Amino acid sequence: MIRLLKLAMGRLGVLAKPPNNKTTRAFARYAWSTGEVKAGGLLVCDGFKSFHEPGLVSNTYMSDQSGLIEYKLNAAGYRGELPDPDAEIRVCLIGESVAFGEGVDYADALQSRLKTLLAQATGLPADKVNIVNLAIGGASSDFCTRSLARQFNNVQPHLILYVVPAPDRLEFNEEEDNVNYAFSNFDLERLEEAPISAQGFCDLYNPLWGCVNWAKNLLFFQQFCHMRGVEHLAISPGPDWVVTQRPAVQNFLSQIDRERYLELSVKSYRPDVAADTRHIGPETHRLLAIACIDRLAQTLGSQPDFPWQSKLVAFANARRNSDPDWKAIRQHWFVR
Prior knowledge:
By secondary structure, this protein is α/β, with parallel strands linked by helices. Helix content is 35%, strand content 13%. The protein contains ten helices and eleven strands. A five-stranded parallel β-sheet has the order 6-5-7-10-11, sandwiched between helices. A hairpin with a 2-residue loop joins strand 1 (38-39) and strand 2 (42-43).
């Protein structure tokens, strides 16, 4: 397992270690049977299980070995809140390490920033805004969309936000675990040390295939939300991830709802870095939350489906004209 994690997660030569002995576990081991186990209203997280044990508390996570950040997981093995059916605003967040908040304190992460902004915009108490975060570090778009389908009925969200992973990732489903491989993380000169499934992935992978799979999952996400009448937004922090103009990709990209797909260039305005020096830092998380609220206000429009909707739209309209961060984000971050 350590060899697999080193190959699959060890970018820049950092060994991704399972949480150390500074962890506590508030959930029984029986949760790790191969059956679907429910805890706190969610099915238990089924990706990278050694990092996502229910109730785990650790000062390390995957590439973040700084020891500076506390990672506290809920009863289902995710970082953040459990579903609250009585909340006035229910949000489901899916994605990878950025959505998870790797390298930043929980209070500074995207989910917390979104909660604060939504409460501020709508005038609701913070405890009436429920953000359920299903993201895990290293996730592929396969894992993200599968998790949405797996957990949707448990969350019953009003809004779904999808921080889209890079296209060089693929989920490999096994009986005991669901492994997410990233081609860019492999040392091809040592590929013979990797599991057979990883070797097969590297043999088959090419950037065109990755982009096609990425686009298929984005389309699945949008259609899934459309069919259920749920407002949604996909966010791509790196617009250079999908650069090919090949017809095999364009056939899918041409079907994407661009109003609900936000391409950003997050390194173009006041970027900072997380504790692991790899991921975006707390200030960039704050600005990312602003970008999400700005676009959501546009797509929601002024015809309220929810009691708080018109307040959110009015809040965003006012901030665009008065807040320098909102102005700068629209000028520097927005690709489309």
